[in-house]
Structure formats: structure tokens, C-alpha cells
Amino acid sequence: MIASPAGFPEERSAMALHCDTIIRDATIFDGTGAPRRIGDVGVSGDRIVGVGDLGGARAEREVIGTGKALAPGFIDAHTHDDRAVLCGPACTLCKISQGVTTVVVGNCGISLSPMRHTAKRPPAPLDLLGDEAWWTFDSFGDYADALKTQGSEVNTYALIGHQTLRVESMNGDVHRVARDSEIDRMHARLKQSLLEGASGFSTGLYYPLNSAATTEEVIAVADALRTTDGLYTSHMRDEANHVCASIEETLRIGTRIGRPVVISHHKCSMPENYGRSVQTLGLIGAAASMQEVAFDMYPYPAGSTVLMADKVRSDLRTIITWSVPYPEMAGKDLSEIARGWNTDLRAAAERLTPAGAVTFQMDEEDVRRIMRHPLSMIGSDGLPHDEKPHPRLWGTFPRVLGFYSRQLGLFDLETAVHKMTGRAAGVFGMVDRGVIREGAYADLVLFDPATVIDNATFEDPIQMSVGIERVWANGVLSFAEGKATGQKPGRLVTRGR
Fold first, then answer.
1. The predicted structure's pLDDT at residue 497
2. CA angle centred on 389, ends 296 and 414, rounded to 5°
């Protein structure tokens, strides 16, 4: 017998079950962290309709999963895929080839809507999403309509960015505290976006477009979340010397607006702060007993964002990922470029901008400690439009499974899958996703637990991982045999629905 899926009034036998697809004899990791088990999973339409022994059930398509792991499709908890989800498989292959079926966009205060930008190029870091040709969505509703019309290979869960709201509401004059009328406009724009299907609000207080915003400004804008069940995420004001003060500010904002908080890509940056994750995790853990707080992280000791000349340091390796005036410098070390130009690092960085960079700014032990913490979830923070991107864009999820879980034994595979599925779905309020059970959406990934691993490196970052065999989103096969199927089953996913 199998449990009845949602909508069926009583149990029925597997003999009576007819499915579109059955994955048979797989090792099921259900996304909750529960022990693995051998069984079958049946799918009809966009839902899972049977889990267990489906030996008597029939299906239009059958997949033999013997020796393979079957998990919920991975949820990328932190992306900058706002534009990528509209670009087709050329932009989303990096996700579906890792088993990702849902992406969280609009992070770090950077969202492609609601703003119509007519200048030649939006200011950094908004330009991480592209030039003026992409900034055409005057409302989140317009963006949601484009998603529905064009389709996508992955599901999209969207946040609205404070930096985007500031640039629009303050007419680009963002290097100051916002006036009351401007705060009111940002609040109204956020509230309307939430009503149109966005699920939360993000800040990027580290960046020049956002750093002049006071805590009170953030609270005033984010107050729109109160009546719309949204959540608050933040690329904090500082992840280095003042990381603890920044955590406290983030927690205070969440308390004031009464909404859940997600700390983006938690880290302790710069050599002088290595080891401080013991302190930061203690602070976050203590807060978690009093308020809803979580954090995402990526499994690498290097980060990547726009190149900022005033932030470069001689004791940190920096690799250029793209440059508008010097595109041929993508993939080269900043120190090498500076020597070739017979100048210092800062002057070379100024000459390269607008540009992006990878910076080796973290300690591996901190990375492992943060990843192992029970409040963590996995987000790639990949930048899909960089010429030479950080390898996290193509390798994050197989790296957690293959390197950190299988090879290093940082945690078992059940825990690894949970951090990438059920944990993230719970934090973001994604109903019926992130789990394998009857009635849940059929977002699924079949992979080989003995071979799954990342191939992308800092030297050669655009490399597909191995071991991911098949991926389904909403019951539709999106990736198989090492390539996209051409199907676009992705949907807009909203908090609580």
C-alpha cells in the first residue's frame, strides 16, 4: 500500500496506480535528513503520486535507478540568475547540470525589477545582471509575465533588491541617506512587487549604492514585508572586521519588522578575521532561539563580485572575471596585469573597471565550520554573465556532495541533501518542494553518489560536473545524458504557496 497523494480521499494499492514516470529501485534521500531507503517514486503531471514499493504500478516511462541516489531537485538558495532564467538553456545549463531545479534570485539588493533603466549601463553592482538592454521591467508583474511567457528550465523564487529600489527612487543620487518621500516610494514599490508575486526583500549594504542607507531606512522600507509574509535577506554591511556588528544589525532589522532573516553567503573575510566563524556562529545560533534566522554559504574559500579598486589588497590573490575596457584580461591575475602595465594594484583595478573579480579572502576551516552548522543552506552565488566566472557557478552542488560529503566526510549524504533541499524550502517557505513524498511537486534529481563531483576550477571554470544523470522540474525531464532536453517546465514559486 502507498499513502494517498493530496486530493485522493483514501489509500489505494500500487496495482491501481498509473503514472507518467516511475523511477524504480533508487536509493531515496527524501530531503528531510531522514535515513536513505530503497524504493520507487511515481510521478503524474507535476506531482509525486507514489513512494515505496510500486512493483504493481504502470507508467508511460520507467527509469531504473538501481545503485543511484534520487533526491529532491536542489534549491540554489542564493543566485544572481534574474536575467539567466530568461535566457534559455545557454544560461541555465550551469544549474540543471548540477541538479538544481529552483533558484532564488534578487539577492544582495540587486534585482532586475522593478526598474526601467535607460542609461548606457546601470551602475555597479547592478551591471552584474547586464547592460541597459535587460533593464526593461518597470514592475515585478512585468518580470513575472516574462517568466511565464518565455518559460525557464528552473523554478524562480524572487526577492526585490534595495539597491535597485534606491537607484530608481533616488534618481541615481544614492550616496546619501534617502529622504522620507524616497523611502515612501521604495516601500510602495516593494509592497506592490510582493503583491505581484515577489517573496522577499534583499539588501546589499556592503556596496556603494546601498552603504549610505541607515538601519532605520532599511526598516522603513522592509516594513512592507509585515503584511505580505515576506522575508528579509542581506549581504551585510561588513563581513570582515565588523562582521559581528553587521550580524547584530541584520538581526535587529528582522526583530523590528517581525520577519524571518537570511544572512547571505556567511563568511569571515580577510586574513585578520580567519577563525572568527566560531564567534559568528555562536552569535547567530544564540539569536536563533529567539527569532527566525538562517544563512546560506558557498563551498569555496574565494568570493566574487564587481571589482572595486579601493578594496584590492596585495596579500589576497585576485582574478579578473570580466572587464568592459579590457575584455582580454578575463582570467588573468590582477597582480600579473599590474606588473605588465608597470603600475600598482589599485591603479590597475581602476583602469580595468567596470569589471568583476574573484578574490581569495576566506579560510578553508571557516568554510567547513560554516557549512557544517545546522542553520546553513547551500547557495552558489554564481555570476552567470561573467566571461571567466567563479567555479561555483558550475560546481557548487556536486562539490558539496562529492568533495565535502563523500571525500572529506564533513557530514553524511542525508545531511548534504537536506541542506540543499528541505532545509532551503523550509527557510524560504516553498510549499511542497524540497522533499520526496506523495503530493509534493516532482522536482527530482537522479545522481551517482559514488562519482558525483565538480569539475570546474578557478583556472577552467566553465566545466560541467559529473555524476548528475537526470533532472525533472514539475514532473518534466529538463536534463539527461549530459545535456538539456529543451523543455522549460520552470515556474514562479512564491512564499507560502
1. 85
2. 35
CA nearest neighbour of 300 among 407, 392, 377: 392
What residues have CB less than 8 Å from 314, skipping those under 6 apart? 335, 345
Q: Which three cell numbers stand for residue 265?
A: 553567503
pLDDT tens by residue, 383-403 = 999 999 999 999 999 999 999
Name, in order, each residue with C-beta under 8 angstroms of 276's C-beta and a sequence gap of 6 or more.
243, 244, 268, 366
| Residue type, position 316, single letter | L
What would the pLDDT profile of 103-138 be if each residue is shown by its tens digit? 999 999 999 999 997 777 899 999 999 889 999 999
Q: How far apart are CA 125 and CA 129, in angstroms?
A: 8
Cβ–Cβ contacts within 10 Å for residue 369, how many? 18
Residue 276 vs residues 214, 311, 381: alpha-carbon distances, Å: 26, 20, 22
Determine which of 112-121, 349-358, 482-491 has the lowest per-residue pLDDT on average.
112-121
- The model carries a pTM of 0.96
Under 8 Å between Cβ of 202 and 120: no
Q: What is the 3-state secondary structure (H, E, C) of the chain?
A: CECCCCCCCCCECHHHCEEEEEEEEEEECCCCCCCCEEEEEEEECCEEEEEECCCCCEEEEEEECCCCEEEECEEECCCCCCCHHHCCHHHHHHHHCCCEEEEEECHHHCCCCCEECCCCCCCCCHHHHCCHHHCEECCHHHHHHHHHHHCCCCEEEEEEEHHHHHHHHCCCCCCCCCCHHHHHHHHHHHHHHHHCCCCEEEEECCCCCCCCCCHHHHHHHHHHHCCCCCEEEEECCCCCCCHHHHHHHHHHHHHHHCCCEEECCCCCCCHHHCCCHHHHHHHHHHHCCCCCEEEEECCCCCEEEECCHHHCCCCCCEEEEEECCCHHHCCCEHHHHHHHCCCCHHHHHHHHCCEEEEECCCCHHHHHHHHHCCCEEECCCCCCCCCCCCCHHHHHHHHHHHHHHHHCCCCCHHHHHHHHCHHHHHHHCCCCCCCCCCCCECCEEEECCCCCECCCCCCCCCCCCECEEEEEECCEEEEECCEECCCCCCCECCCCC
Please name the residues in contact with 474: beta carbons below 8 A apart, sequence gap of 6 or more: 46, 155, 441, 442, 443, 489, 490, 491
